[in-house]
Amino acid sequence: MLRTFAVLFLILITTGACTAVKNFNISDEFEKSSNRYNRMLRWREMDLAGAAFAAGPLKEEFAARVKAAENVTITDYRIKSQYCIPEKNQAEVIADIDYFVAPSVTVKTVQDIQKWEYVEENGKKSWRLVSLLPEFK
């Protein structure tokens, strides 16, 4: 009886540890993807950011937002909040983006609410943006 309990306990502990490691890896992947995406925006690589991270159905609409923002220069961004729920394959980032629209030099701020999902594409799971680039006015 004690041996059976010990085996069941070890199985339970091992399963829990595996889940914790998996969730950590998914969260770590999200942080890397989110940081890369925001750096791409900051360094005027909006088109590459959309190609790399926008979910398939949003790619065209994301590209249209990028085209509309061709005169936008992002001067800074600040992450206000960020959370990841690995069990639901979802994450969200709220960032403030400082920018100006040429030829003006007036710096404005827009809030960017980024919704992310951990999805499988071509047999590989990765984080995809399921929200659009904000409108820069």
Q: Could you give the order of the helices and strands?
A: HHHEEEE
Indicate the CATH class. Alpha Beta
Specify the biggest β-sheet.
4 strands, antiparallel
Q: Helical stretch count?
A: 3
List unreliable stretches of 5+ residues: none
CATH architecture term: Roll
Q: Any idea how many domains?
A: 1
Mean pLDDT: 88
Radius of gyration, taken over Cα atoms and rounded to an integer in Å: 20 Å
At CATH level 3, the topology is: Nuclear Transport Factor 2, Chain: A
What is the topology, as strand order, of the major beta sheet? Answer: 1-2-3-4
How many beta-strand segments?
Answer: 4
Assign the structural class, choosing from mainly alpha, mainly beta, alpha/beta, alpha+beta, or little secondary structure: alpha+beta
Shape: elongated
Percent of residues in helices comes to 40-55%
| Percent in strands | 25-35%
Distance between the termini: 70 Å
Structural commentary:
By secondary structure, the protein is of the alpha+beta class. The chain has one domain: Nuclear Transport Factor 2, Chain: A, CATH 3.10.450. It has a four-stranded antiparallel β-sheet with strand order 1-2-3-4. Helix 1 packs antiparallel against helix 2 and helix 2 runs antiparallel to helix 3. The longest helix has 41 residues. It starts with a helix and ends in an 8-residue tail after the last strand. The mean pLDDT is 88.
